[in-house]
Amino acid sequence: MAAKRWIDGDETAAEMLSRVSSERPFLLLPPLHRVPLRVGNVVELAGPSSSAKTQILIQAAVNCILPREWNGVHYGGLERLVMFIDLDCRFDILRLSEMLKHKIMEPNGSMHDHEELFAACMRRFMYVRCYDSLEFLATLKTLHHRLKREKAMHNVNIQLLMIDSIGPFHWVDRGSTFFPLGSHNRKCLSLQSISETVVQEIRKLLVLHPMLVIATKEIVLGNVYGTDGAKQNKYMLEASGIRSITSSSQQLPYREFMPPIWQSLITHKILVRASDDHLLIRPDQENSLYLSEWLLPSLGYQDKFVVKDAGIFVVS
């Protein structure tokens, strides 16, 4: 019957765009605002340590769990579910709580009588911590049932799946071989098979639960290998089963260590890093300045932004 109603339905282009934008809204938040991100996209947020990657995830999460309007007050949120998978095991829930309170207080100036709104928003934020690749795989394989249950409970869809960060177990898995419990006839889990399974499970989730995926990745900036060592580096990568995806048309400013199967999943890539400069807000207050650059698609310029208590702000 639903299919028949869809076939028989008639709407103008303006009505169709309005319906799609409300059902599957774009994410337009600094410093990710240059390219509209929608469900089905898989974004890799790469940067060195202390480059505000997790802060960007928190800002996106707050925007998703806030309602568009509450008690006549406009908040501009999406009122959707967010799943945060913490692989770094360093997530600060207090920072999320503080930023959410700042957003709630912006139109009102006080948290008085808004505890109910705060609690409702926090219930839309789901958090899972994984300590190794096997726990990560188990989380992905059981995520469909949890999201289905949460969707029925809150009567809203999931908008964001966040992975912070995607590579902490990579080097441990390279030197390890896992043998699943039970039958010895089961295939052992290597780095390649783990990566393939992770990508396969995320693809399945995107079919069953259309959502936007944002994964952070910690990198080391700079030309790690000189020209003389380029061939040796390529040989070492190929010997360990990793092919470089860097081509002459796109030279990354860091060494790519994730396997090609993961790179095939990525639709957007952003580089963030801390700047040596500081922004003077007041005579007694300086804010660290950060830079963001779109690598996929390549936009050819950088945005500057600062992180404040109320969130991330782009500096012109």
UniProtKB/TrEMBL annotation:
Positions of the RecA family profile domain:
17-224
Q: Name one GO cellular component term.
A: Rad51B-Rad51C-Rad51D-XRCC2 complex
What's a Gene Ontology MF term here? DNA binding
Where do transmembrane segments lie in this chain?
none
What protein does this entry describe?
Answer: Putative DNA repair protein XRCC2
* PROSITE patterns assigned to the protein according to its UniProt record, in alphabetical order: RECA_2
Species annotation: Rosa chinensis
Signal peptide positions on this chain: none
Question: Which SUPFAM superfamilies does the entry link to?
Answer: P-loop containing nucleoside triphosphate hydrolases
User: Alphabetically, which GO biological process terms does the record hold?
Assistant: double-strand break repair via homologous recombination
